[in-house]
Predict the structure.
Amino acid sequence: MQIYLPIAEVSVNAFLLLGIGGIVGILSGMFGVGGGFLITPLLFFVGIPPAVAVATSANQTVASSFSGVLAHLRRKTVDFRMGTVLLIGGLIGAAAGIAIFNLLRAQGQVDLLVKLCYVVFLGVIGALMLVESLRAIRRSRRGKPATKRRQRGWIHALPFKMRFRTSGLYISVIPPLLVGAAVGILAAIMGVGGGFIMVPAMIYLLGMPTKVVVGTSLFQIIFVTGFTTLLHAVTNYSVDLGLALVLLIGGVVGAQIGTQIGLRLKAEQVRILLALLVLAVCGKIALDLLLEPAELYSIAEAQ
Amino acid sequence: MRLATLFLLCLILALPARAEQVVAGLSQTRVAITTNFAGSEILIFGAVKREAPLPDGALHVVVTVAGPSMPVTVRRKERRLGIWVNTEAVGIGAAPSFYAVAATAPLSEALTEDQDTLHKVSIPRAIRAVGPAGAADEASEVDSFVEALIRIRSRKGLYQDLPGAVALSEDTLFSTSIALPANLTEGDYRTRIFLTREGEVIDAFETAIGVRKVGLERWVFLLAHDQPLIYGILSLAVAIAAGWGASAVFRLVRG
């Protein structure tokens, strides 16, 4: 069954889109990630124009993070104060990201920018996760418990300190602002929530307790991706409501199936699978950049 | 008054000179893009009206359908620092978003080069109608970009060269069908029918097919372009509602 997407102006098989939404939903349920980093490249592969894919993924991420944050609110694992500080950084970053996106779009380099971002970030995150989870498996075989470490150093010497009760922290607002801004830029350029950057940064850089990290990250992602969606809608007219709806339906159902699968797997196994998946997506995009394309020319319609 | 009479007289005298005329019809003059739009087939048919005995020379019918013309930028990738990057770009003044040309024979037979240039019938002529902006001195360089544009759009079914696709029977009745692909843009699709004898155009007929998004598609498209802020907020509302709905439904299911 073909459906005509009003903004993308292409006709795509609805079941294919439902499938993409479903698969990404399953993965996000299994691994607890937003799945934006998978949706955007998959949409490229089925022929959605990159600008529409990025903007619509951002909208899709709003839905999945909102659904996630509700669950965390019930468990009271959201640090609103930290979330707000991250958010202020995030909004500034998102505005900058959109400006970069539009500048490069005018020069015809937006594809390259988006793909390079994906290769670099997916490559680094995937490799780190793989190494970390392999180490964790080896550790558990030897029977030693995982050790936790808290970083104390230059981050605690910065000015403008603030108390974050839920996280039990008393640190400067500068690092969270910077982390937020970095994620905001990524959200605008890649159409992702940035949870895969935000979560490690909160744990290792800010030293937040793991139990409040995911909820807080999701809380601020809602606003950053929401803001990004609005900016894309206003400046590029590139959010496709039809596409977002079909992806949402698939994603919502998939997420629940994924959660059930995730419960039956061991944490290390889940992380290794996720790492391999991230690396596979990264490899596919890298190949596109490195191999000579079959068609050297591309067409861009004037706006 | 005298002038008008003279003009009328000229007109009456001129009419028999056009010995052959095209009378044509279309199976549909409107194409509605709905949510489940998967392309459309348009039947174009007609007859040659004659008031004199059949003249000599090969008779051909050429049918063209052209979508709205828009400026496009064609970019070429080159390897820079090991990766393939867009480097050179050529702006093309106007290229139709869709173009199909069907004829009773290969175009070179049905139409002389001069007539093609005059009426802009073949695909490269239709694109160059306005001419590429700038870089006029590097004509051959620009040519490769125009060829690439034709190649890419032909692959998507947007540009169709259909020699022999028009059926002409008894030198009088003709018909052809043009397939409009699913990835159409909105606009008036200019449809022309040329009657040629010995490669010279002896009569032409022109009409338009209106391609419009309808219903929900139209509403969404217009809202996104006319009220982008409201549209953006609506998108967010839909996302929030879906997220909340999913959470509520599955809490019930598990509850």
